[in-house]
Design goal:
single chain, Alpha-Beta Plaits, 10 helices
Length: 239
């Protein structure tokens, strides 16, 4: 369930409330005194899948695209019309606005992204050289690359260029930085004899596995990506 709060522009109270009445949605209205271009604040509960169609009708009634709007996830909603709303708007899909917000939250601030990327690269490099699967998994947990990848995908699908562009830039920049950090670590280890001079890294199991992927690896990647997409679109999971 979602709670939507929207500021109603001057002169649009009646048509906006008429839409909510027509949708048989319980709502609360407060007079707005802080900003002259708005006359009221309306709040109403709606199932997640109903946010987008109801907001579309409200925009037709006079709510602008960029109007002050908040979508919240409440703990509990008690309403006499709630069951009917759930039956009418059944499903798990979330609204476009909520999807964009989730995708934006997944792409961290640049400084945070770079810090975690460097740390994860150090851990991953050590894990590969030690042939330690557990250490590599730990690096994957620390790595901040999943968020930008999902942001870029979501932005591309829903035609949000800024969101997609930032996701792609973070991924490309992160890839180049990870290669540079790993190269520096390798050079330091080789120069300080921390690695045996005769070591052939191609013979290390974890490295060989990642430099020679097969079709099974492709299916695993597709499955992981699909799981992430479903989690974001339906507002579930741990992403």
């Amino acid at each position: 369930m979602r709670i939507v709060q929207v500021l109603i522009p001057e002169g649009k109270r009646e048509p906006v409330l008429a839409v909510l009445d027509d949708e048989k949605i319980d709502y609360a209205v407060w007079d707005e005194t802080g900003r002259g271009e708005f006359e009221a604040l309306v709040q109403f509960p709606i199932p997640p899948i109903g946010v987008e169609p109801v907001m579309a009708r409200l925009r037709e009634a006079g709510i602008s695209e960029n109007a002050y709007t908040i979508v919240l996830s409440p703990e509990t909603v008690v309403s006499s019309r709630l069951e009917a709303l759930k039956k009418r708007y059944s499903g798990l899909r979330i609204s476009r606005e909520e999807l964009i917000a989730r995708a934006e939250d997944l792409a961290p601030a640049t400084s945070t992204f770079l810090a975690f990327l460097v740390l994860s690269t150090i851990i991953a490099t050590g894990g590969l050289l030690l042939d330690s699967a557990a250490t590599i998994i730990g690096a994957m947990v620390v790595a901040p690359l999943m968020g930008p990848a999902i942001s870029a995908s979501v932005g591309t699908v829903i035609n949000e260029r800024e969101l997609a562009s930032r996701g792609v830039k973070l991924q490309v920049g992160g890839l180049l930085l990870a290669i540079a950090v790993a190269a520096v670590i390798g050079a330091i280890m080789k120069g300080t004899l921390l690695l045996p001079p005769a070591l052939d890294i191609r013979e290390i199991g974890q490295i060989a596995e990642r430099t020679s992927p097969n079709f099974l690896s492709l299916f695993l990647a597709l499955g992981s990506g699909l799981a992430g997409a479903i989690s974001i679109m339906r507002g579930s999971g741990s992403t």
